[in-house]
Amino acid sequence: MRTAERLRYDVNCSILFTELPLLERPAAARAAGFTAVEFWWPFPDALPTDGQVDEFVASIESAGVRLVGLNFFAGDMAAGDRGLVSWPGRVDEFRASVLTAVAIGQRLGCRAFNALYGNRLDGVDPRQQDAVAAENLAYAADVVASAHGVVLVEPVSGADRYPLRTARDAVEVVDRVNQATGLDNCRLLADLYHLTVNGDDVPAALAAYSALVGHVQIADAPGRGEPGTGTLDLAGHLDQLTEAGYDGWVGLEYKPSTASGVSFGWLRPSQRAADLLEVADTTGAAR
Length: 287
Known about the structure:
The protein is α/β, with parallel strands linked by helices and 287 residues long. It has a single domain, classed as Divalent-metal-dependent TIM barrel enzymes (TIM Barrel, Alpha-Beta Barrel), CATH 3.20.20. It has helices spanning 25-31, 50-63, 91-108, 126-145, 167-181, 192-197, 202-209, 234-243, 269-272, and strands at residues 8-12, 36-39, 66-71, 112-114, 150-153, 186-191, 213-218, 249-252. An 8-stranded parallel β-barrel has the order 1-2-3-4-5-6-7-8, surrounded by 4 helices. The relative contact order is 0.15.
């Protein structure tokens, strides 16, 4: 058995099952055999109502799945925003979403929270943006520590103004945050698709930074489809991560080339169902 076959896979319900309303997607993931899901920010604004939060939590609980990853508010993603972490003037929105996300995490047992860094802004000194980001990430790390979780920093492709392109770019941010806070709960989100499309040397990056990986996401390249639709050696990369000690979740964050349920054919049913009673912390967060 390849080592990657022992990993645990979850469905990103913000990019899969988009033919369904958002709150129906956890149940669809469960019907497809999965026991864990993750989401981008699932609300239209940084500060949802109590009712919206309760409805989201209920959709996870009633589906019988586990929430293993959640993004903080990232602005208007459809319009091209890619996070508020480094955006002066929107600090209150970002921090409000941190409090909400961690409260949801405490209700559902989620310990991994993705903080999209944000695009470079016209007329704003990048050094100012990086200073804002450092303060925001330190704040997030402190709040997330109360849930025994990790803050994830992700390189992203397809956004020309997004400054974190490679694993090294993100790890430099991670290291600064961990050194500043002493909490050691900031981690790299290794999205193998984004790293590949951005031209990173993925095997070298994984060899250098595997100890800092807090979560993994996959899609094939080119095209961002399910594994098998492109040429990316996903199995080889996942084997490398597993052999280096990674035993956390692998999020399926791809655009299905067929109906969502059909696009899971590459993954055996036994690989979709992780033990819902498992309570071990595999995120690498300080205990």
